[in-house]
Protein: Anhydro-N-acetylmuramic acid kinase
Amino acid sequence: MTPDIYIGVMSGTSLDGIDVAAIRINDQFSFLAADCVKLPDDLRQQILMLTQPGNNEIELMGRLDNVLGKLFADAVKQLISSSNIDIKKIAAVGCHGQTIRHRPEAGFTLQIGDPNTIAEQTGLTTIADFRRRDLANGGQGAPLVPAFHNKLFRSAETNRVILNIGGMANITVLPANPSSLVTGFDTGPGNILSDAWIHEHSGASFDEDGNWARAGAVNQELLQHLLNLPFFSEAAPKSTGREQFHIDWIKQVIQENKLQIIAVDVQATLLELTACTIADAFNAQHLADPELYICGGGVHNSALLQRLQELTNTVHIATTEELGLHPDWVEASAFAWLAHQTLNKLTGNLPSVTGAAHERILGGIYQA
Ligand SMILES: Nc1ncnc2c1ncn2[C@@H]1O[C@H](COP(=O)(O)OP(=O)(O)OP(=O)(O)O)[C@@H](O)[C@H]1O
Ligand SMILES: CC(=O)N[C@H]1[C@@H]2OC[C@@H](O2)[C@@H](O)[C@@H]1O[C@H](C)C(=O)O
Structure:
């Protein structure tokens, strides 16, 4: 029997952990199993160093490329053993890697986590480096997951928008009309700023259920200054990352404008920034009776979901669980699907999303 299981590995911008998902792709798509492996704190700190220019970057990048390759391989092996998947039925692993720099305007994006190591240590064909072919073809190299959303979540009856709220936030617009193009782009920060702000003030890695933000009041002056960032009014295609959205930006805006704000109010304002920028992007689509489906870690923040419900003009709002895929596993499943595309010589990018000139087969194949 031809192997038809694909394993996707995703370590996202929030640096909370490595998501691994196993899916079967034949005539149909079926979700089999998933797991999340935490990133050790010291490794997290070192990756953070690589996301900003600094000293001795090449040495650190080389070492982390190797360490992450081993960790990704371990995460794959752990999922295989905990879910009792027959390794002979696995066609390939699709590994996103860890983004350490994303500068499409300068012609590059960089994900690390050595796929040679993953192939060696798992004995499985591994596909990686998905973004750079799209970039070389004139695209942003991101977001890539809209092609998977299109495959799995599109409806001929209703206009749908899929929203991922991870470290960054991105939307995919899936028109009901089959001849309309799918669009999508990064809307800006998801949880990255509020994660960093609460970490600095209490050591927590994220604001559980948005409780701290809920206890504060939005500072409209700070919010307006933040919303003035040109990225928010730029037209798609667009993508972003930690280069643009980091905690020093918030501190700088507070300082430059001599704002006196207590920490809890900053947290409330950061949640509002995420909600407003997502809602503005959504409402600007002017879709007839749109449904909004949410995935990514942001679904666990009910304060954020409540604000989105208030701000978006949608007829129905739910998580992707309602569409059959748990919101925690959408991105990892997408990279399993992208591996399937590449292995079968099928294209993976959507030029209408990334701005690439053409559809392309993405990534490099590291044979078992
Ligand atoms: N219980 C919770 N309460 C509030 N927020 C939560 C909770 N659980 C997860 N999160 C948020 O979700 C984030 C992780 O989301 P996710 O794993 O989707 O991000 P990612 O994949 O790393 O990012 P990206 O999609 O940008 O690559 C955490 O950093 C945190 O902010
Ligand atoms: C460069 C990079 O890693 N971008 C991520 C990030 O996290 C969310 C958003 O910004 C999205 O553009 C992308 O990830 C998903 C997996 C994507 O390519 O669709």
